[in-house]
Amino acid sequence: MTGPSFTGRRYLVTGVLNEESIAWHAAAALQRHGAQVVLTSFGRAARLARKAAALLPEPAELHELDVTRPEMFDQLAQALAADGGRLDGAVHCIAAAEPTALGGQFLDTGVAALEAGFRVSVASFQQLTAALLPLLSAAPGGGSVVGLTVDSARALPGYDWMGVYKAALDAATRYTALYAGRHGVRANLVASGPLLTVSAQAVPSFDDLARYYEDWAPLGWDRADPEQVVGAVLFLLSDWSRSTSGQIVHADGGTHAVAGGIGKPSRQ
Q1: For the chain, how many structural domains are there in total?
Q2: Tens digits of per-residue pLDDT, 161-192?
Q3: Residue 268: is its pLDDT beyond 80?
Q4: Cβ neighbours around 7 below 10 Å, total
Q5: CA distance 218 to 257
């Protein structure tokens, strides 16, 4: 059995900010396997995204997508349809939380901050899939949408409302899988361990969380290596996952499967 082929296929990757992000590494891996990649960014972040795009193996077109503006989803879909039309999959790497929603302030977070984070981190997954559905449903073998989450079955100190958003994203993905499946489109998530990215720096407890994974992951964990997650993303984008939808694939060194804190850390 040979590996899955991405040659001649076209994928949208959102959330590329710099070459340390999971999104950038996923885009680079897709290109190395023969796929065409289209990126999204917006506002001041677009300048950084263009610099990151220039470091990819191949040039990548960049479209604007501000997920707080609903009309931009349709505009993106129209632009992609006009520029070749085909889309085999999309990678959703979009999340945000107000500073007051992190770092132990859970009980004090205001409603406005909660709603803003939900819109960006959860609703954008459904909106992106819905807007791209006509393009994805036309993909040979069916289209695939892959998002990023964490092990949301446990409360992670300091992660707070972002943990709640990820749990909501888990549920939203299952419902997306339910309703997009009739169009031949699958929806899945990759649950990553903590990685040293720009977004991670906003989590005050990141070092403690990363150290926990590094101590207790049966397979080990490296907070500085996004490639640990890329293989799972590519699997879910490939034909090898054509019967897989509504799933969460853990790429965390196995940490989610063990009760850390009991006895001696597995990596010591």
Answers
A1: 1
A2: 999 999 999 999 999 999 999 999 999 999 99
A3: no
A4: 8
A5: 9
- Residue 184: count other Cβ atoms within 10 Å of its Cβ: 16
Does residue 237 sit within a domain? yes
Distance CA 48, CA 99 (A): 22
- Residue 1: per-residue pLDDT: 45
Burial class (CB in 10 A: 0-12, 13-18, 19+), 137: middle
Residue range of the domain that includes 153:
10-255
pTM of the model: 0.95
Q: Which residue type occupies 132?
A: L
Indicate whether 96 belongs to any domain.
Answer: yes
Domain at 110, CATH number: 3.40.50.720
Residue 263 lies in a domain: no
Tokens 């393009």 appear where? 135
pLDDT tens digits, one per residue of 114-138: 999 999 999 999 999 999 999 999 9
Q: How is 53-93 classified by DSSP, letter by letter?
A: HTTSSS--EEEE--TTSTHHHHHHHHHHHHTT----EEEE-
Task: Tell me the mean pLDDT in the region 13-36.
Answer: 95
Backbone angles phi, psi at 178, to 5 degrees: -60, -50
Q: How far apart, in whole angstroms, are the C-alpha atoms of residue 2 and residue 78?
A: 35
Examine residue 4 and state whether it is found in any structural domain, yes or no. Answer: no
